[in-house]
Amino acid sequence: MELENYIPQSKLVVPQTDILKPRYPAIDAHNHLGEDFGGGWEDQPFEELIGLLDEAGIVRYIDLDGGWGEDLLDSHLKLFKEKAPERFQVFGGVDWSRWGVMGNAFPEWASARLGAQKERGAEGLKIWKPFGLHVQDHTGKLVDVDDPRLAPLWETAGELGLPVMIHVADPVAFFDPIDETNERWEELGAHPDWAFTSPPFPPFMYILEGLANLVSNHPRTNFIGAHVGCYAENLAWVGALLERCPNFHVDISGRIGELGRQPYTARKFFLKYADRILFGSDMGPYLEAYKLIYRFLETEDEYFNYSVMPVPGQGRWYAYGINLPDEVLRKVYFENAARVLGNPR
Ligand SMILES: [Zn+2]
């Protein structure tokens, strides 16, 4: 038998809780509606999208797919935001490819573009993970996450009141050699392009220290560290940055597998940083994916598959619920995002 055909079924007899809706109305602070990550909702009926969100108890949905040009941003604003302004907030982005053309003028240009995006209707800035891994300046040099030349961009985001949703690096194991010790071996086998083995890529901690510097260098800008501050494997590290930087927040999207395999540590993390954690799915507007997160946050269920796939894709382990108290759930589901993201315009 090949490993990929091995699908062991747990024989544990323990409670299985089906949570259909979050205990409190939820803001999904990290998700997509575009082709690549959100299921391509540009071409699907809007009523169906609203129906799915209603069914899942999602009162507001952050669409990070506004892109860096006017066309994509305008189309997402028109297709989603304009039809239900209170239900959506669309984030813009930075067109890094312009650095090669603009040279040293790029940071000021990118800052001005951010202002223009806000005027069109963008309500935040999404920084995608090529930043720190692939983004180059006009000389072809890899740009560090804490590159001081980009200060105008981050300061402008702060002045405009636009939160910065930032994703740097990826699971730690993606930076390790792909061998028999790699805990994401199956996933990397299926997606070899997800490997960022160093060299040639910078080491994982180099990128993460860049993130910590970036956030502490711009205290007037609100940053949301995607996927549990980009380091769900090490909640002590994320907690230390949260303590050092009041302008730092995290979302929990795409990391129920990580959080759910360390339930004692994760629960303490949620209790301690209850004001700084934002709910998010990153799986498109899909009820089954939402339900797994609700189950993790709200129940004491043990050893359940954290993904909708028969073999969980992010590693062959299972998750445990952390049964958060009501006041923490209210903050994580709604209040923190409402504060950091502001009222929908
Ligand atoms: Zn995402």
List keywords for this structure.
single chain, 345 residues, alpha/beta, five-stranded parallel β-sheet, three-stranded parallel β-sheet, 14 helices, binds zinc ion
Report on the structure:
The protein has 345 residues and is α/β, with parallel strands linked by helices. It is 38% helix and 9% strand. The protein has helices spanning 35-38, 46-56, 70-79, 99-102, 106-120, 151-160, 185-190, 204-217, 226-229, 235-244, 256-260, 263-272, 287-298, 326-341, and strands at 26-31, 58-63, 88-90, 125-127, 164-166, 223-225, 248-251, 277-278. A five-stranded parallel β-sheet has the order 4-5-6-7-8. A three-stranded parallel β-sheet has the order 1-2-3. The model has no long low-confidence stretch (mean pLDDT 96). The structure holds zinc ion. Zinc ion (ZN) binds next to loops.
Brief digest:
It contains 14 helices and 8 strands. It is of the alpha/beta class and about 350 residues long. β2, α3 (about 70-80) and β3 form a beta-alpha-beta unit.
